[in-house]
Each structure stands twice: as structure tokens, then as C-alpha cells.
Amino acid sequence: MAEKMLMGGNVSGINSEEQSEKKGQVFVITRNKAIVLAIIVVAIIIFVGVMSGVLSAKKARKDALDEAKRDRRQGSETASSATSATVVTPTEKTGPEPWYKIRLPENIRPLHYNFYLDPYLEQNTFQGNVTILVEVTAASEFMSYILIHINDMNVTRAKVYKQSADTKSDTASPGDEVALKRTFEYPKNDFFIFELEKDLKVGKYVVRMEYKSTFSSQLNGLYISTYTNEKGENRKTVEPRCFQAKEMGEHFLMEEERRDDDVSDGEVFPKKAQVFVISRTKAIALAVIVVAIIIFFAVISGVFSARKARKDALKEIQRDKRQGDLSGSTSRSVINATDATTSVISSPKPTSTAGSTLAITPTDHDPKDLKPWSQIRLPQNIRPIHYDLYLDPDLEMNTFQGNVSILIEVTAKSEFMSYILIHIKDMNVTRAQVHKVYGDVKSDTTSPGVEVALKRTFEYPENDFFIFELKNDLEIGKYVMYMEYKSTFSKHLNGLYISTYTNEKGQKRRLATTKFEPTDARKALPCFDEPAMKATFSTVIVHDTEYTALSNMPVYKQQSLPNGRIASHFKKSVPMSTYLLAFIVCDFKYTNATTGVYNNITIKVGTFIFTFNVQSIFLKLRVWTTPAQVSQTEYALGVGKDVITYYEGYYNLGYPLPKQDMIAIPDFSSGAMENWGLITYRETALLFNKGVSAEANKQRVAVVVSHELAHQWFGNIVSPKWWNDLWLNEGFASFVEYLGVNHTHPDWEMMEQFLLSDLQLVFPLDSLASSHPISVDVDHPKKIKQLFDRISYSKGSSIIRMLEGFVGREKFKEGLSYYLRKYAFANAETKDLWNALGEKAEMDVKTIMDTWTLQMGFPVVTIKRAGSDKATATQKHFLLDPNAVVKEPSPFKYKWYVPLTYIFQGSAQDPKTTWMNVSSDKVEFAWPPGKWIKGNFRQVGYYRVHYEDDNWQALIAQLDSDPMVFTAADRYVPWKTALNSLGFLGGILGDRRGNGYFQKFVRSKVKGLADKLGWKNQKNDSHINKYLRSSILRAACRSGDADALSNATQMFKEWKSGQRYLAYSLDSSKIRSQDAVSVITYVASNPVGKYLAWNFVQNNWKTLFSTSTFRLTSLTSGVTRFSTEAELEQMKAFFNRSEAGTSENARKQAIEKTQANIEWLKKYEDIVTNWFKIAVVA
Question: b/e for 609-618, b at 16 or more Cβ within 10 A?
Fold first, then answer.
């Protein structure tokens, strides 16, 4: 307050100016205030003396160490001497400095303003000072600058201080002043810039500024307003008008000095108050004496402290020389492992601070200066062997704490042997230690051996790293890391998070659950969070007595704790990747069964693998859900039991764990997650209510259960080395899921449905120039999450299906079994699978399949007659828009090894095969004269086929005369294929002049079958017939069939507004956040709802972006079904002004698809419209 009075001038008029002139200028102060002032002065003297001593000692110590280092190196470092604050105005852009940008840097945020304002209404001026508490939240490339907005203002003083204490709004004790190189303005963007001598650290600072200005001449900023009072006098008021960005929210404490010209010269203090009156001259003399005492005390303290510190430092240097420990270290600050506990934010330069954990960002980019934490990947010479994890979640407080002991092995030397890196995210590490292990230890972490001395521990949030920096280099061998930590449950549906449900009593119940794939295990425990870093896990979970704890392995012991809770101890796991870990604390119920044919015991001796089969009678299968829904688990239990038995035989490898749990989670971001031994599902993917749930839901449960169980072998027993081979996991499981369901339900025609659900759905996406190869180099977690798309799943499964087709089913199974046994409990790459399959099939599988995995897209094969009895086939990269520019380079120049299969008229069940390769433009083969040819037998190949007009006409004639050659007229798969293609036309013609003819055409084709199938399921209906009914009736309704619409309207009596339904998607109490994207895309799939959904997404993007991160790709592709220039420009404008997140690729694809649709309409709209017009009339 004293400082503010000094800066603001006279306050509250103790005596008027006139009185001061007559009687001499004096200061008046009460006795109590004089005593307080004296105490403050003494405290300042003591404080300054102590601080002077500390700083002098620190400087002397540093100087001594620097002298010693200078003796051992050539050259010297020079520091900038520009320390005064100057005001300049850059006029030309010279680089990417932050003041050239309109927006403030996002990594510096204000927390609190102390604002003092002194307006002079008559003189039309004001002055003031402001003290701002700011926080540097993250490192950036401009850490030596602080930018703040000013406009039409004269800054007379500007300083920056480092905030030493953890404070939320206190700016009165800012700590050490930060040295400034200069201050300057950039008026173009209204910036005042502090340029610092040294980079900012992540943490809190105080910015102080004094300034003067005049009131604004416009009705904005701080301006004068006038009015006339009852006496007819013209009066003035001050009107502040400003705009505050929500994202820069802060606290304000404002003091305004007001002058009152009518204040009397009456008594200022109570009559009995004892006061001191001192003249101005004496006050100045007294202030000089006090300042002199402070300076004298500071100098004396500094001198003695500096002498002692220098002496101690020189002794330390001599001792280090004798021990040989001075190896270029720039600091001798000692951080004991037990001290390096607090997770704090620090600077861009790695500075040791005793007793603290820093968060740093290196600023040097010279490769020789790169540190391991600046890399995305973990160092590969340190591998985890075993984790002992103790987890204590508090569901009511929304927090959890834990500790983990990790046995690691240093397998080789590297250039960074004094560092250990581990992943953490959104976590406060409270203790960190490292111990050296002696002897051959495989998993024991309870007797770790000798503690290793740490120089410091710090964080690097950019790459989610927690770093141990050791005093001495690591040795090759084993160590134990011990860490204690605290955190809060994730706000998103990943990491360790809270899900809720309402029980039958109407009570809201909570459960803790996990979703770690791909990179979110680090949110629940410190770990080596890469798929290749496999290790075993022994887990203990603490929970309340009414809850059950689940994890990957069975519970072998429960321990009652003094606080009344239970600690559940789980058996040691097999070696597994961190993304497959799972922990759940819930009050669910389950149904159970036993399953399995045989288990295997696999023993590795060097490069040899021995596998023994033993009878599996103890594999327990359980399906969990909320107590009220437990009856809906029976179907999934039956499917799971049969599929596990089938997979054990198919892989010729037994299920390796003693139990398999499957659990329905009320809030879950994806369909399911294949956690080893504890698969988590969305409720709709696991529960089936017989007599209530739709037939489609029954198939979905069977497919998802089969998919996740397939992963227990392919993905869990053998995992990818890195995420560029994600497709190996998902593509393979997406193929084998059809085999599993086909085994349990052979009448469902699952192998034919593959064409609808995967092959035909991925073709449009992979025909875009913005597609991507199956195998993609990725590093950042955001890019990894983008790989969970239809390319990895559907294209992956399609090329696996094609591979099985040309190597043969039995050879394919032999190769898979060999692959799984060879790499059991380890990691593999795509080439390892190709080599294993090639060895069993006796062919070069790798050379063939590389053309399908290492380049995007697929070919269209064109077959033409060459003479009377020959055919030529050529291949070309198929693009939805032929004019699209492909920017992605291809190592094979967009040529493929194509297994071209074909049949001729008269021998439809006798397919031939001819190989097309990357080196020749065409292949020739026999084609009997007078017969049609059909390529890609059963659509096993991942390619399209095109013919000359004569052959197309011959195929059409065949369908007209005898359709049974190809398929039955009322079968589901061909009908669904046709309706999917017509759906494209319906979407693109929806608001065009040809839509009426199109709709009439569709009605004419589906009317007869719709009437035949009816609106009710029959007792003898097959599963596939129910699917057909659903598709045909939907097409009838969409094409405007009156009878179909009447029936649908009667069945759906309560119509709900699409707008209200969309609004529900943002209210998790009505529609769970996991289902929000599905709701919006379903609305968008209707021609009327398309624009409604698009506008809704634009207006609510920020909310959807924060709650649906994992499904932004589906959301973007679902609401961007456009075909006009206006829609394209609107879409681009929205994409430019909004953050993409994980939808970056989807946005490129949406633009490309829209451009292709525009071109399609230009070329074919008139042709198609006329065709439908003629067809309808006919």
C-alpha cells in the first residue's frame, strides 16, 4: 500500500494544497503507525541483509566454480550488456517473433491484477500502475519474451519479478527481479514487449507497470461521459469499456483514487489520537539514514557470506578433483532421491534445483546437443521387466494415489547413460528413487539393493516424460525404480476414469475403469508406455468392501486394511504391453461358464521354442454388467464360450490366461477394448435383451465379442513393435471376427457380409488422394490415434482375406500358428508375419504384400479382348476424382502385385488366376471366344474390375436371363450392395432436379419385395431374412413409398424434433457422451437432417471437440456429405477457423470427397437424370 501511495501522489487530502503552501509541507502520522513503520524498517534491514548474504554467497560460489571450469576449457562465454529498458518500434518484419502475430502467446496466462487508477477528469488525463500475477504454463520457442496489450499509453516504468512462492493472487512479495534486455512497443498489434536477458521458466511471475495516458476520444476504452444535474451544472463521469476474452479469465483488485474539491480542512484524526508531525526536510534526512543503514548492513553481510561461500566452493573443487568427479558438470546442487519429489514447472533450460522436480524444454536444436527427452520414443537400451503396482482409488473424491516399483534392465550402453526416462501424464510424483540390483533377479522388487544417487528429477510434458538424472552413469545390469504419485481421474473416457449408472433404486452409482490404448496407461501409473516395452505385472487395488476389483489376472488374496477397506492382490501376469493393462472397481454382477480345449506351455531356449499342450478345464469366462442387466449377458457368454474354443483350434494355440472377463461399461469411447483377460465393452456391444433388442444388435454383439477375443492371440500374445503396425492388430482381428461368428452362426452368411461391412465401405475412402498407406510412420500420440480408422480395420482385413485366398486356407493357418508361437509374449513387425506365412506357403509373401501395405489406394484392373481368344489386363491407381493430385509418393509408383482371378461363361465355378506385377504394364491370358468374363472371383481381391462395353452388356444379359448364375434375386448381400450404391445417388441427387425420378425408380424396384416381406418378423424367419427386411423397408421409406411411410408413422407415434434430439447429444444425462457422435451422424444421414446436423456441429464444435476427441474422425466424415461449391467453401471456412485435433485427415478427405462429388455432378447429373426419367416412364 505504501508503494501505491508513493506512485499515485497525494492520497485523500490530509491537508489541502493551499494549507501546505502557508504552513510548510509536513507529514502527519499516528503513534501506532509510527511503531508499525519502525518495525517494517527493521524487518527490511534484516531481510535485505540476509538476502544480500545469500545472493553474494551464491554468486561467489558460482564464480569459483566458473573459474575452475575456465581452467579446463578454451574460450569464454559472453553475456549481453543491454540491460536498460528502452522503447523501440520495429517497422519491418524480420522473423517469426511473437509480436508479429495478432494473438497473444497461449503459454503465458494472467491470474490476478492489482490495478491502481488515478484519473484527472478536468485535465482529461489519467495515470496508474498495475501489478499482474502471470503463469507460464508451458515452454515455447519464444521464452525470452512477455507480451502485453497497450494502446495510446505512455509506459513510464516496467519490471518483471520471479514469483518464488506458490500463490494464487498475492503480488505484494514478488521475489527476485528478472533482468531485462529491453522493453519496446509494436503498435501495429498493440503490444508492449518485455525482452528478458534469460529465458522464462515454467512457473509464476509478477509484471509491474506504471503508465500515463489521456481519456479516449471515442466511446471505448476509458473515456469521459457528461450529464447535466438538477442545478444545470455540467458534470463528468468516467466510463470504462473493454472486452475480456473468456480464455484469459483472471481476478482483478482495483483501487481508484478520487479527488473531492469540496473536502473541508477540518480535523483529519480523532481528537485524542496521538500523532507525530515531521517536516519534509527531516523526513528526507531520516529516509537517507535508513537507506544508508540498510546498504551498510547488506554490504557487510554480503562480504562475509561471499568469502565463506568461495572458501567452501574451492574446497569442494579440490575434493572433486581428487575423486575425479568433475566431468563438465555446470552445477553441484545435490538432489537426494527422497528430496526430488515435488512436480513443479520450471524453465526452458535444465537448471538443477535441490528438492524439486522440474519441467523443462531444451532450447538448443543442434543434433549433438539433443537430449533423450526431446525424442518421441523411449531410449531402447532400458527395458522394463516387472512392475509391482499398488493403486488406491477414491471414487467419491475423484482422486487416486499409488506407488510402483519397476525392475528394469540396462541392456547396452548409449550416449545418455546418466538418464532414465519413463512416461507420466497429468500426475504428481511425490517420491522417486532408483536402486541398483545385484544378482539374477527376474521379478522381485522388494530387495532392490543399493540406492543410486540422483542429481535431480524433472518432467518434460511435451513428450509426457519424467526423467531421473543420475550423478553417475548407469551400468549394464538391473535396477529398481520406485515412484509414489497422486492424480485425479481423467475427465475424458481414457486413462483411469469414472463411469456412472443409475441403479434400480434410482441411486447414482460410480465405478472406476480404464481405457489405455494407445498411449493413456501413463495417466494411471508411471510406465514405459510403448507396445514393445513388455513386462509382467503384479497388481494390488484398494477398494471399499461393497465393491469388487478386477484386473487382467485373477485375485489370489484379499487383505483387510485398518481403515475398513480391502486390498485385492492379483496374480502375476504374463509379459504384456502397457496398453493392455486394465483396472476396474465396481459393484457389478456376472454370469459365468468354463471353456477352452487346451492350453499351451511355451518354453524358449535360445532360438528354439518348445510348446506343450495341456487340457484346459480351468479357463473361467465371466460376463459382468450392472446388477439390473445381468440377465442380458447370457448371449455374449454363449458366443464367448464357443468362440474361445474355436480360436484355440484355429490358431493351434491355447488361451494362455486362467480366466477371461468381459464387462459392459456404461461410459465407453469405442466399441470395446481387448485388455488381456479383462475385455471392456460399450453396453450395446455386449448386452442382448432377447425379445427386445433388434436382430442387428444381436449380430453386433457376436461380431464385437469375436473381434476382441481374436485379439487375445493376435495382438496380445504377439504385439506390434510400434504403432505403425497397428493394422496388424486391427486388420487381422477384423478378418478373423467373421470366422468366429461364422462358426457360431453358420446360417448368417458372415463371409458374404464381409463384402458389405468392410470391403465395399473402405473402397470410397481408399480411392481418395488424401488416403494413407496401411503402414504409416507415426510418432506423436495425436497422430497415433488418427490411425484408428477404416484403413487400418477394413482395408487391413480385406488384404488379409485376399492373402488367405492366394496362399490357401490351410497354409494360411499353418503360417499364423508358426508366427504366434515364434513371437509369443514378444513383439513383431509386419515383415515378420509375411516371412512366417511365406515360409509355410513357400512363396515370397513379403514382396507381394509390401505393395499393398506400403502404398495407399488400390488398382482398377481393365480387361480387354486381344484378338478372338486372348485377353489383356492392365492396372491403374483408382481415384474417386480422376483429376485429383496424389501428393503421397509411392515406392512402387502405384503398381501392385495383383492376384487376378476370373471365370468364363459356362464355367462359373472354375476360377483361373493370373498374376499382375509391378514391372510390366499388362498381362495376357486366354479368353475363349463368344463368352463373357468376370474378374475378381467372389470379390476376394482388393481391386476393382472394368471391361469394354461388349462384356458389360453380356454380363447384364446374363443377369436378365439367368441371375442364379451369380446370385439369388432375393438374397440380402446383393440387395444391400445395390442399395448402398443407390444410397450414393440418393445423397448426391437429394436436392437436385433429378431426385424425383430417382425416388420413383427406387420405389418401383423395392415395392414388391417390401410388400412380400411385411412389417413383422415371422417365426420361421432366418437371421439374414430379418436383415433383408430392415434394409428393404428402409429403402421404401426413404424413396417415399406411401404404404411404407404410413406403417412407419404408425409404429413411431411419438415424433421428436431433430433439433431437440441433437441438443440432447450435449447433455450427458440424456445421451451419454460416448453416443453423441452417433446421434449427430444418424441425423446427418437423412437428407433433411444433413444441414441441421452440419450447423449444429459448427455451433457446438468446441464442446464436441473436448468431449468426443477419439471420434472426431467419424463425426467429421458423417456430417460433411456435400456436393456443391457453396457447401465446399463453407466447409473450408469452418475448417480454417476451428481446431482439427484427431480429425485432420478426415477434413482433407471431406474436402476431396466434396470436390469429387461436384465433378461427378458436372459430368453425370444430366445423364443419370435422363436415364431415371426414361426408366420410370418405361
Answer: eebeeeebee
Name the strand (E) or helix (H) holding 36.
helix 31-70
The answer to whether 638 and 688 are in contact (CB under 8 A) is no
Q: Residue written as cell 475480456? A: 244
- Read off the pLDDT of residues 812-855 as tens digits, 9 standing for 90 and up: 999 999 999 999 999 999 999 999 999 999 999 999 999 999 99
Burial 814-844 (b: 16+ CB within 10 A, else e): bbbbbbbbbbbbebbbbbbbbbbbbebbeee
Q: What would the grid cell of residue 478 be?
A: 538391473
Q: How far apart are CA 1052 and CA 1056, in angstroms?
A: 10
Collect all residues with Cβ–Cβ distance below 8 Å to 784 and sequence separation of at least 6.
518, 519, 723, 726, 778
Per-residue pLDDT at 912? 94
Q: Is 256 a catalytic residue?
A: no
Residue whose C-alpha is closest to residue 947's, from 873, 1058, 854: 873
From the list 454, 428, 461, 457, the residue with the least C-alpha distance to 362 is 461
Q: Is 315 exposed, middle or buried (0-12, 13-18, 19+ CB in 10 A)?
A: exposed
Check residues 596 and 359 and name the one with the higher pLDDT: 596
Please report, in range form, the residues annotated as the binding site for Zn(2+): 707, 711, 730
Which of 523, 450, 469, 526 has the alpha carbon at shortest distance from 492? Answer: 523
Which residues fall in the annotated binding site?
707, 711, 730
Q: Looking at per-residue confidence, does 745 or 1089 come out higher?
A: 745
CA dihedral sign, ordered 926, 930, 932, 937: negative
Beta strands in 686-805 (DSSP E): 718-720
Q: Which stretch of 11-20, 796-805, 868-877, 1013-1022 has the lowest confidence by average pLDDT? A: 11-20
Catalytic member of 195, 530, 683, 708: 708
Q: Which residues touch 28 (CB under 8 Å, ≥6 apart)?
A: 14, 15, 268, 269, 275, 276, 277
In terms of pTM, does the model score above 0.70?
no
CA 236-242-245 angle, to 5 degrees, is 165
Pairing between strand 718-720 and 826-828?
parallel
d(CA 791, CA 82): 57
Contact 690, 538 (CB under 8 A): no
**Residue 666 preceded by cis peptide, ω within 30:** no
Cα 333 to chain centroid, rounded: 36
Distance CA 852, CA 839 (A): 19
Q: What are the CA-CA distances from residue 174 to residues 57, 538, 961 (Å)?
A: 21, 47, 91
Nearest-angstrom CA–CA distance, 549 and 542: 8
Per-residue cell: 178: 528478472
pLDDT at 59 over 70: no
Query: Would the pLDDT of 154 be above 70?
Result: yes
User: What per-residue string of b and e applies to 1040-1052 under the rule 16 or more CB within 10 Å gives b?
Assistant: ebeebeebeeeee
- In the chain, % of residues over pLDDT 70: 76
How many C-alpha atoms does 738 have within 13 Å on its Cβ side? 21
Rounded Cα gap, residues 418 and 328, in angstroms = 13
Strand pairing of 203-214 and 125-136?
A: antiparallel
Neighbours of 90 (CB within 10 A): 15
